[in-house]
Amino acid sequence: MFKRLSNPLLSNSFFIFGARGTGKSTLVKDLLSKSRTWVIDLLNADELEHFSLHPQALAQEALARKAELEWILVDEVQKLPKLLDVVHSIMENPNTRHIKFALTGSSARKLKIVGANLLAGRAFVNEFYPLTYRELGDQFDLLTAVNFGTLPKISSLNTDLERKEYLRTYARTYLKEEVWDERLVQNLDPFRKFLEVAAKSNGTIVNYSNVAKQTGVDDKTVKKYFEILADTFLGFYLESYHRSVRAQQILSPKFYLFDAGVKRSMEGILNVPVAPRTYSFGRAFEHFILCECHRLNTYLRLDYKFSYLKTKSDLEIDLIIERPGQSIVVVEIKSTDTSTDDDSSVIKQFLDDFPDAMYRVWSNDYRSLQYGDIKAVHWQKGLAEIF
Q1: Predicted TM-score of the model (pTM)
Q2: What is the DSSP string of 174-241?
Q3: Which end of the chain is less enclosed by CB atoms within 10 A, N or C?
Q4: Does CATH place domain 13-128 in 1.20.1730.10?
Q5: Do the domains spanning 13-128 and 133-289 agree at the CATH topology level?
Q6: CA distance 272 to 373
Q7: Buried b vs exposed e over 79-110: b needs ≥16 C-beta within 10 Å?
Q8: Structural domain 133-289, CATH architecture
Q9: What whole-number distance in Å separates Cα of residue 103 and Cα of residue 30?
Q10: pLDDT digit of tens for each residue in the chain (387 aa)?
Q11: Domain ranges of the chain
């Protein structure tokens, strides 16, 4: 059992959204008092059918057990959105309003589509992700992370063959249970092709037209597909830096899948290892760092904003971190284990554009080096400094 960084406030009801297999249910069950919690698992076919036919049974049972209940955990609530109306009524009933709800879900899209009752602020919203390097602690291994990702199940498997089989199964399960069973798309075949294309273009600037051509659908459908990935917590956007720095600045976002292992499974390259000192390792390392930043920012409630900057002459800053009340951090991400002054060359061309910024190169080099105003540090030290 890993000690997770996510810490939903237990003084209030809460949602916790995240992709399948990230450990949402395990976290919530660990946090709540077992003796005073009623668990409703909507992945259980019998429970799903019962509450689908008799949603008011939730309110009736809550009232009957009001003296013994502190929490009601509803697992995978997107399976039965109408149950949220009953949850709302329990919260408003003077006889049961002391009961708090923990509501987990792997798809916000299903709730949006049906206009589900999201309880108007009565339940705080939390997001949940695969394990961070901090949560893995001594079990963290960078090569494993870039090859197979950090879903909790991966850490319990003993061989690479088992890890590959799990990730292949995960991808198939996502298509069936999250997309097809929930009717998020009308035709599964182009969406299946889209997943492969999205995985191959992971971390690059989104070009809806190019993806549409490769997928066989129109631009509007491709945008919808990307929204499905974001709404089922399988990916996130990295926006272009919003302030005009150069006249020829590119403004389109990048898109990153939420986990390196799932990305490689969707791309169909699990049998091609990511080896150090290769181009693929550099891309995978950058992906890993962006995922870590995204997760830590959410868990620590920092409200940082992340972006990249690229000019049409191909000058690119990998990561810009805007921190409320603090200086901007301009970061170059390098997978090398031997940093040199060349690693800071791009940042040096932007020093006048960010005069009050903190400049960093994050790499696999354990030395701390200074290149003028730019400091190069090991990525773990860099993340610890900012998070």
Answers
A1: 0.93
A2: IIIIIIITTT--S-HHHHHHHHHHHHHTTTSB--HHHHHHHHTS-HHHHHHHHHHHHHTTSEEEEEEP
A3: N
A4: no
A5: no
A6: 39
A7: bbbebbebbbbbbeeeebeebbbbbbbbbbbb
A8: Orthogonal Bundle (1.10)
A9: 14
A10: 799 999 999 999 999 999 999 999 999 999 998 889 999 999 999 999 999 999 999 999 999 999 999 999 999 999 999 999 999 999 999 999 999 999 999 888 778 776 667 787 899 999 999 999 999 999 999 999 999 999 999 999 999 999 999 999 998 888 778 887 767 888 889 999 999 999 999 999 999 999 999 999 999 999 999 999 999 899 999 999 987 676 577 789 999 999 999 999 999 999 999 999 999 999 999 999 999 999 999 999 999 999 999 988 889 999 999 999 999 999 999 999 999 999 999 999 999 999 999 999 999 999 999 999 999 999 999 999 999
A11: 13-128, 133-289
DSSP state of 79: G
Q: Quick check: 167 and 262 in contact, CB under 8 A?
A: yes
End-to-end Cα distance, the chain? 23
Q: Which residue, among 325, 318, 319, has the nearest Cα to 302 in the 3D structure? A: 325
Residue type, 227: E
- Distances from the Cα of 93 to the Cαs of 4, 60, 118, 279, in angstroms? 33, 11, 17, 59
331: left (phi over 0), alpha (psi -120 to 50) or beta: beta
Q: Tokens in use for 226?
A: 């990307």
